[in-house]
DNA sequence: ATGCCTTTGTGAACGCGTGCACAAAGATTG
DNA sequence: CAATCTTTGTGCACGCGTTCACAAAGGCAT
């Protein structure tokens, strides 16, 4: 999970646990797929498999929203899609601004799945004067000077930061001062925000490092098992060259 | 947090809790910044602020790695950088392949922070024959047909999937069959993998939906507070037009 | 109408993660 | 060398999240 919230200690957001909120979009995606295949109802077990979670967890999650299921039958797909959408606030249209239209910002602007679920790219903002006016994904880039006006005019409350790390905190402060209360941060920095502002971060580098940790551990365990004469569990083909870059696994030589 | 692991029930990865592992890269980043400023030592309190966490949590996290601090003084920055790097497996060089060189894949390939910490883009792979041979970020794109050979030749164990959702599971299976045991997935799908393979996902859409949930809740609470005659907490300027797109907040009209 | 079969909704137990608070450790100063 | 001051390392309690397991609910067949 390339994510983490900031501030706001307790959960109790109208009683729905934070962990549940984080899974609702997952259920919604699975349900939307079922809806497109015109499947009328689905059991907690089927839906759980589709969403990649435990079925008891899924039922408990839904129980926070109310009793929308029918015992012996399951859940009505359309009805559940509506209920979850409403709970997540997706029945409204959320204007979003993206700040920092470089490699990543441009990719985000071009991302189709953005608009698909109630989010609309209201503006693209960059500090580079060269970029001003140039269209990216059909939307002209605007200069940072316009930031406050853009936020205000469009009633934007969600901002995406895709600037280099150095500028992120300052951009964040301007966004917040202008009225933004939710920020999705792609820059590798810890953002400091006042209470009442939500920050979520997506950090590629952290994700890779976490994977590397487990990868190293797997290589170590495997080496230890080989040392002990235990044959590697399965997949010994790939296993035999698992030390990355031809390096020796980080275990004691003797 | 745009993240979530799959499979592998218990933690106990050599005793280091998963939550701690997820924070180590954060500490490492803060420590690297200190190191570049030639700061010799740092207290848990200072470092905690820099990393945006509680200092007790930070100390407990470090205690899992061993006793690397000096009471009354703090932690030696250089030494800690080394210890965390080693623990995360960053003293090795990890070759990574990126599959699906579209908007996002190209941005990832161009991402500088990639190589900075032990990760090296070994190959770019795409199914589009038109792209084969074209250089992206200085690396020629190779066709999917070569996938197995590339993984094998380079000893790749970490793969990044940036294809459309439809192709992700199949790409995933080919990667795993070829020997990849860690996957970072950007496609909005639940990937099914065999035991022993780690999957982490980054899902922009889910992040935005979580933000929207809290945003809606804030708007609702505010409306309720206004109704009750209680003035909005702070920042009433921005608050007064918090209903997105000029819509009425989703509360009962009367 | 009655009984069976499926599936929900949730009580309860458990484990992980967090944060407080403090004793022990060590540096520093006189 | 002793006193003081700073900061670590951790015992402990608490709360959240997960999972099991099952009683209740409801559809459906006879
Ligand atoms: N490219 C990736 O795949 C990737 C992956 C993970 C994280 N990131 C992070 O995302 C951020 C952007 O990455 P990128 O590759 O797009 O970088 P980039 O250099 O291509 O783009 C950065 C853009 O931000 C603009 N900018 C700089 N300062 C600004 C400011 N104060 N206000 C507004 N705009 C400003 C620049 O003009 C530029 O257009 C970086 O922090 C990077 O670490 C990128
Ligand atoms: N662009 C974004 O900012 C963004 C954000 C979040 C998630 N995503 C997700 O990331 C993925 C890629 O997004 P994108 O905007 O780069 O899409 P894109 O259409 O620009 O690029 C997809 C690329 O994958 C290639 N491809 C398709 N099937 C393939 C296969 N089976 N094997 C190898 N390559 C294959 C295509 O040739 C194309 O080059 C999508 O799943 C999207 O939902 C993108």
UniProtKB/TrEMBL annotation, chains A, B:
Region entry Disordered, spans: 221-254
Family matches, as Gene3D superfamilies: NAD(P)-binding Rossmann-like Domain, Winged helix-like DNA-binding domain superfamily/Winged helix DNA-binding domain
UniProt DNA-binding residue ranges: 26-65
Coiled coil residues, start to end: none
Binding site for NAD(+): 100-105
Transmembrane region(s): none
GTP-binding as UniProt keyword: no
Subcellular localization, as worded in the UniProt entry: Cytoplasm
Primary location group: cytoplasm
InterPro entries found in the cross-reference section: CoA-bd, NAD(P)-bd_dom_sf, Rex_actinobacterial-type, Rex_DNA-bd_C_dom, Tscrpt_rep_Rex, WH-like_DNA-bd_sf, WH_DNA-bd_sf
CoA-binding domain segment(s): 89-190
Keywords assigned by UniProt, alphabetized: Cytoplasm, DNA-binding, NAD, Repressor, Transcription, Transcription regulation
PANTHER family in UniProt: REDOX-SENSING TRANSCRIPTIONAL REPRESSOR REX, REDOX-SENSING TRANSCRIPTIONAL REPRESSOR REX 1
Membership in a protein family: Belongs to the transcriptional regulatory Rex family.
Assembly information from the UniProt record: Homodimer.
Biological role: Modulates transcription in response to changes in cellular NADH/NAD(+) redox state.
Protein name: Redox-sensing transcriptional repressor Rex
Encoding gene (name): rex
């Amino acid at each position: 999970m390339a994510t983490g919230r900031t501030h706001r200690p307790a959960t109790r957001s109208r009683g729905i646990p934070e962990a549940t909120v984080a899974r609702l979009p997952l259920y919604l995606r699975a349900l939307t797929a079922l809806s497109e295949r015109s499947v009328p109802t689905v059991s907690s077990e089927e839906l759980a498999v589709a969403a990649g979670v435990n079925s008891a967890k899924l039922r408990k999650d839904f129980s926070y929203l109310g009793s929308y299921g029918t015992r012996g039958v399951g859940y009505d797909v359309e009805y559940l899609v509506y209920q979850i959408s409403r709970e997540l606030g997706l029945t409204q249209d959320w204007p979003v601004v993206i700040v920092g239209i470089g490699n990543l910002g441009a990719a985000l602007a071009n991302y189709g799945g953005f608009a698909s679920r109630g989010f609309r790219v209201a503006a693209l903002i960059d500090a580079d004067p060269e970029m001003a006016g140039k269209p990216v994904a059909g939307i002209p880039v605007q200069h940072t000077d316009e930031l406050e006006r853009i936020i205000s005019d469009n009633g934007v409350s969600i901002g995406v930061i895709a600037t280099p790390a150095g500028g992120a905190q300052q951009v964040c402060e301007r966004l917040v001062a202008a009225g933004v209360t939710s920020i999705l941060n792609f820059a590798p920095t810890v953002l400091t925000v006042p209470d009442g502002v939500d920050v979520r971060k997506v950090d590629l580098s952290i994700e890779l490092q976490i994977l590397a940790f487990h990868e190293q551990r797997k290589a170590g365990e495997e080496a230890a098992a080989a040392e002990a004469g235990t044959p590697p569990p399965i997949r010994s083909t790939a296993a035999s060259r698992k030390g990355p870059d031809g390096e020796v696994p980080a275990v004691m030589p003797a």
